From TrEMBL:
<dbReference type="Pfam" id="PF01565">
    <property type="entry name" value="FAD_binding_4"/>
</dbReference>
<keyword id="KW-0560">Oxidoreductase</keyword>
<keyword id="KW-0274">FAD</keyword>
<dbReference type="InterPro" id="IPR036318">
    <property type="entry name" value="FAD-bd_PCMH-like_sf"/>
</dbReference>
<comment type="similarity">
    <text>Belongs to the oxygen-dependent FAD-linked oxidoreductase family.</text>
</comment>
<keyword id="KW-0732">Signal</keyword>
<feature type="signal peptide">
    <location>
        <begin position="1"/>
        <end position="18"/>
    </location>
</feature>
<dbReference type="InterPro" id="IPR016166">
    <property type="entry name" value="FAD-bd_PCMH"/>
</dbReference>
<feature type="domain" description="FAD-binding PCMH-type">
    <location>
        <begin position="74"/>
        <end position="244"/>
    </location>
</feature>
<dbReference type="GO" id="GO:0071949">
    <property type="term" value="F:FAD binding"/>
</dbReference>
<dbReference type="InterPro" id="IPR050416">
    <property type="entry name" value="FAD-linked_Oxidoreductase"/>
</dbReference>
<keyword id="KW-0285">Flavoprotein</keyword>
<dbReference type="GO" id="GO:0016491">
    <property type="term" value="F:oxidoreductase activity"/>
</dbReference>
<protein>
    <recommendedName>
        <fullName>FAD-binding PCMH-type domain-containing protein</fullName>
    </recommendedName>
</protein>
<dbReference type="InterPro" id="IPR006094">
    <property type="entry name" value="Oxid_FAD_bind_N"/>
</dbReference>
<dbReference type="InterPro" id="IPR016169">
    <property type="entry name" value="FAD-bd_PCMH_sub2"/>
</dbReference>
Length: 422
């Protein structure tokens, strides 16, 4: 399973904006891996066009490795030049100048997972300088530039008395997960991150800039909330925000031996089956893995629960899990911005490595299947001992009431009736 941190990139190849009789040059078919990239020409010509403090990086630059580093280093894209704009107005200039010559990969935090990234060759447009955030006067929405990410967004809003739906990991961007749906701890109350997009400023593949909302370019507004990574570059997003009425969150982390597997998943089904997870139970994350500090020859079950409220409320829900004998457990009440740290989804846990990933979305946990997966995991660890260090079975379950409250026909997101990720 992969945490649904979901996609931090936008390939500009698939916006059909004209009739079949008039195909624009940027929509002509070509093979992504065969186009030559005139990097020195790009550096020379763009340097005169871009704002002060914009960067154009070639592989010889000391900043190159850090700028092109990705969370998953398995089959990385073939980046020939990196352009890091200092201003939103730079992006249309970049695209319009080179839209018929080079492919663009737009990167925020580098968490894109699709295997097609390995076939990409071209320019990386790096959004890291574009991270401004501004709350609207009415206090109902806020604007975030395309480089904003959860580590900064969550405390920015919290310190001003607000929250919104973001991805569940601190290190992922705001736009990337939202364009693909965007699971997070507040979706039980406010829906997916993508459900909270009010408006987007988008640069299309020919360099033109448009507004996308329920009043302007409505077809794109539908498509880009759930399937939005390939239509253009999102330079700015207007998001719904909400008063932070819940001042404390409770977390409870459990470590169980494998003989408790059936009972743990039975209780999870009672709590979460068919989308019944209480809306304040923001997320349940789980892992099956080898923890050498506990057992070197047996994978354990680790599950962490996050509840929007104090222990006095949360522990009533967790009584069935407290009754399952654990190796150890940890719990506490903290402000919302600290919850990712307690659930191991903070920046320190965003370790870059070559991952081979697969996932599935489910409505219920099949206990027989979970036992078979555990046994398969242990057989492979025995055959390939190095897997004991890195291999994981991951589990995610979110409160779903806010997601189901949104009409499935109103966005392109296709998984509103699937509640778990594994």
């Amino acid at each position: 399973m992969t945490l649904r941190l979901i996609f931090s990139f936008m390939l500009l190849t698939t916006l059909a904006v004209s009739s079949p009789l008039s195909v624009p040059p940027y929509f002509q078919p070509y093979h992504l891996t065969r186009r030559e990239v005139p990097v020195f020409q790009i550096q020379q010509e763009l340097g005169a066009l871009l704002s002060e403090n914009s960067l154009i990086l070639l592989p010889s630059n000391p900043l190159w490795l850090n700028t092109t580093k990705r969370w998953n280093t398995m089959a990385p894209p073939d980046i020939k030049v990196v352009v890091q704009p200092a201003n939103e107005v730079d992006i249309p200039k970049i695209v319009s100048a080179w839209c018929t010559t080079i492919n663009f990969l737009v990167v925020n935090r580098g968490h894109g997972l699709t295997k097609s990234l390995g076939a990409f060759k071209g320019m990386q447009i790096d959004m890291k300088q574009l991270r401004s955030m501004n709350i609207a006067r009415d206090g109902k929405s806020a604007w975030f530039q395309g480089g904003a990410y959860a580590y900064e967004v969550i405390p920015f809003l919290w310190d001003r008395g607000y929250v919104t739906s973001t991805g569940s990991n601190q290190c992922v961007g705001l736009a990337g997960p939202a364009l693909g749906g965007g699971h997070g701890r507040y979706e039980g109350l406010y829906g997916l991150a993508g459900d909270n997009i009010v408006e987007m400023k988008v640069v299309l593949a020919d360099g033109s800039s448009i507004t996308v909302s329920d009043k302007s370019n409505k077809d794109l507004f539908w498509a880009m909330r759930g399937a939005g990574h390939n239509f253009g570059i999102v330079t700015n997003l207007k998001f719904k925000i909400y008063p932070a009425k819940i001042k404390t969150w409770h977390y409870h982390n459990y470590y169980w031996r494998q003989d408790k597997l059936e009972r743990v998943f039975m209780e999870l089904n009672k709590l979460q089956d068919d989308g019944r997870t209480p809306p304040l139970l923001g997320v349940v994350f789980g892992q099956i893995y080898i923890d050498p500090s506990i057992r070197r020859d047996e994978a354990i079950l680790w599950f962490t629960f996050a509840y929007a409220g104090p222990a006095s409320e949360a522990e009533r829900l967790l009584r069935p899990f407290n009754a399952i004998d654990a190796i150890k457990d940890e719990m506490g009440d903290v402000p919302y911005p600290e919850i990712p740290v307690r659930q191991n989804t903070d920046l320190s846990n965003c370790i870059s490595a070559p991952f081979s990933l697969a996932s599935v979305m489910l409505q219920t946990w099949n206990i027989t299947t979970e036992r078979a997966l555990y046994n398969h995991f242990m057989r492979n660890v025995a055959l390939y001992p190095d897997l004991a260090v890195t291999a994981r079975l991951y589990y995610e379950g979110y409160a779903h009431r806010g997601v189901q409250a949104v009409d499935s026909a109103s966005t392109a997101y296709p998984h509103r009736d699937e509640y778990h990720i594994a």
